[in-house]
Amino acid sequence: MNLQIQSETVDDKTIMSLRGDVDLGGAPELRAILSPILESDNPRLLIDLSGVNFMDSTGVGIIVNAFNRVREKQGAIAFCTPTPRVHRVLQISGLLTKLPLYETREAALTALESSFHAPPQTSEATA
Amino acid sequence: MVNSRTQKTHAASLPISRATAPKPKPRFDGSDEKVVIQIPAHPRYVRVVRLAAAGVASGLNFSIEDVEDIKLAVAEACNNAILHAPPPKSGRLPMVTITLLPLADRLEMRVEDEGRLPSSGVPRRKTTEASDEGALPEGGLGLLIIESLMDEVQHLTGMKSNTTLLMVKYLRAV
Predict the structure, then answer these.
(1) From residue B18, how far is each of B63, B70, B106, B168 by CA, in Å?
(2) What is the pTM of this model?
(3) How many CB atoms neighbour CB B156 within 10 A?
(4) A interface mutation test: which of B42, B72, B111 has the most A CBs within 10 A?
(5) Are B144 and A92 an interchain contact pair (Cβ–Cβ within 8 Å)?
(6) Interface predicted TM-score of the whole assembly (ipTM), two decimals
């Protein structure tokens, strides 16, 4: 399934929902949509992964790049509701506990509200 | 542009040996069958390979989780082949050839490109630790993922500087 990206702004936060395959083929479009958000001052970004049914290392690289750039901009970023396949690839990549990853969108939004941009201490997803 | 065919062959399995316990009989004995797919080196065709690999792996009675792992590993191998492919010649994209060899106790996969690896080889991440500034490393994950998911991985360089990645996934005893 081709990557579908839905983005909305709520207050000062961008909520981006991804559906389909986050892979080498979908990478250019995802990077293009993320770029202006990541270049803004103090970006606050939530990426909902609940619709992702395939993610390869290219997709992981985009997620990590977003995390790094938001940190550089003193912003806040959170990822939520990973599917089992996303959970698996992040686990293999050694990133499961290093990214701000939350089991629910509500928990991720709460983290963004507090401008929390460090990896969570206890909320490792278990999807 | 995508050529897919199944052909009979008497070629022996890939030269990887491993002592194995008796395994459940697969739905088909693939000892003399292989599936060969040739795709242009473009990301849009990787999904074709993923689906083919999933179909062959399902026929061998791999678990759903293992089928997903096989799809990811073969996609990563194709990604590497595409990213390191030589530029098009006369508008023709270089090709990537994927061979799926189902055997009684394992699936062997071979991904061969027309490319030339950088002298340093395929970029490989050595660590997932954050830098002193807290930044996480962003690239070089493909091989790490392949090696994590597959039971055997070998790199071969051909006479024409082409590269072949061999991957083997064994059926687990139930």
Answers:
(1) 21, 19, 11, 11
(2) 0.81
(3) 13
(4) B72
(5) yes
(6) 0.86
Backbone φ, ψ for residue B79 (5° rounding): -55, -45
**CA-based nearest residue in chain A for residue B42:** A25
Which residue from A21, A27, A95 is facing B128, i.e. has the nearest CB? A95
Beta-strand ranges (E) seen in B12-141 are 33-40, 95-102, 106-112
Contact A61 B141 (CB under 8 A): yes
Please tell me whether residue B44 adopts helix, strand or coil conformation. helix
| DSSP-derived pairing of the beta strands A101-102 and A76-80 | parallel
- How far B145 CA lies from chain A's nearest CA (Å)? 6
Please report, for residues A38, A94, A100, the alpha-carbon distance to residue A42 in angstroms, rounded to integers and kept in the order given. 9, 27, 17
| pLDDT tens across the length of chain B (174 residues) | 444 343 333 344 554 444 455 555 544 455 568 999 999 999 999 999 999 999 999 999 999 999 999 999 999 999 999 998 888 888 899 999 999 999 999 999 999 998 765 555 555 655 556 666 667 777 789 999 999 999 999 988 877 778 899 999 999 876
Amino acid at A94: G
Nearest residue of B to residue A84 by CA position? B65
| Closest chain A residue to the Cα of B144, Cα to Cα | A93
State the nearest Cα–Cα gap between B49 and chain A, in angstroms. Answer: 13
